[in-house]
Design a protein that fits this description.
314 residues, Collagenase (Catalytic Domain), 10 helices, alpha/beta, binds zinc ion, globular, binds 2-acetamido-2-deoxy-beta-D-glucopyranose
Amino acid sequence: MAFKIFPLISFLFLIFILLAPSGHAKRSIPSGKKTFFASAFEYFIKKLKGCHKGNTTKGIHELKAYLEKFGYLRYPNKTQATDDDFDDILESAVKTYQENYHIKPSGIVDDETISKMTTPRCGVPDIINGTNYMHPRHRNHKSSGSSGVHVVSNYSFFDGEPKWPPSKTHLTYGFLPNFPANAVAPVARAFQKWQSSTHFTFARAQTNADLVIGFYRGDHGDGAPFDGPLGDSIAHAFAPPDGRFHYDADETWSIGAVAGAFDLETVALHEIGHLLGLGHSMDEAAIMYAMIGAGGIKNLNADDIQGIRDLYNI
Ligand SMILES: *[C@@H]1O[C@H](CO)[C@@H](O)[C@H](O)[C@H]1NC(C)=O
Ligand SMILES: *[C@@H]1O[C@H](CO)[C@@H](O)[C@H](O)[C@H]1NC(C)=O
Ligand SMILES: *[C@@H]1O[C@H](CO)[C@@H](O)[C@H](O)[C@H]1NC(C)=O
Ligand SMILES: *[C@@H]1O[C@H](CO)[C@@H](O)[C@H](O)[C@H]1NC(C)=O
Ligand SMILES: [Zn+2]
Ligand SMILES: [Zn+2]
């Protein structure tokens, strides 16, 4: 149950800060802790409202860091990556982000952009190695015969379209030793849902599983650190044939829809999509949409299933 205790402590701490008389709170809590309940990112980004090319507002480096983390930016020059200069490269990255999330691509940090960026999301980048697979494009719909029907897809793949080999349609999954016992069933249900809608079958294995699921907090050595409670990323998974899927242990998790908590099964459905080779979808109703709100539940939709069919040519 460790995964529930930490968010509980955070929550009690937040209540303490809110209820404590300010003089008292100032004496007992270091001032830096004020950003505890709104991530540093959220604090800065809200101050950037209206920013555009040419601005040098303090905090623009936080916007650069966010867009870099999710694949929209890569400065060759470290100085440019960490300064507060809203340059051409940043404007272009903001526009691409806006296009991917159906926001008018103005390059201006408007309310819609701020609201999207401050919604908790999956930690997997939208863009890997510079190719924006989320850009809507006409795809040759292979299952419709050799002549093909061109459809505009919302789903996406990873760069290079990594996938499981054709012979590998049965995949096993396992859990890290610290995995909470009551979190196993929601993950198993998510595998069952993917199994009902695809050519894959899944079974739990005690050893040598193809897919391994665990809880981690902070920097856990895979190059994609988590960011604590109420930060921007809540879980992530790697493209085939890697098989790793991690929940952020600092978030509050639930079984089913619980206000302020993330549903284990909904997030598992999303991350399993990555394990099978799907990138993020532009369709807000798809399980593969990157933003995952607290308090809700979601299922696979037609876009997710079409994505798998297209990737595996079935
Ligand atoms: C951005 O720069 C403009 C001038 O080009 C200025 O009027 C505006 O206040 C700046 N915005 C912010 C949020 O700093
Ligand atoms: C990096 O960018 C800064 C600011 O734009 C510039 O002063 C510096 O010369 C650049 N360094 C390199 C190695 O290009
Ligand atoms: C990015 O591209 C480089 C060179 O093309 C390649 O070695 C690397 O594996 C790619 N990374 C990912 C995550 O696809
Ligand atoms: C893509 O998603 C949008 C909603 O975000 C939807 O209106 C559109 O029909 C979807 N396209 C396809 C081909 O499913
Ligand atoms: Zn994701
Ligand atoms: Zn990880």
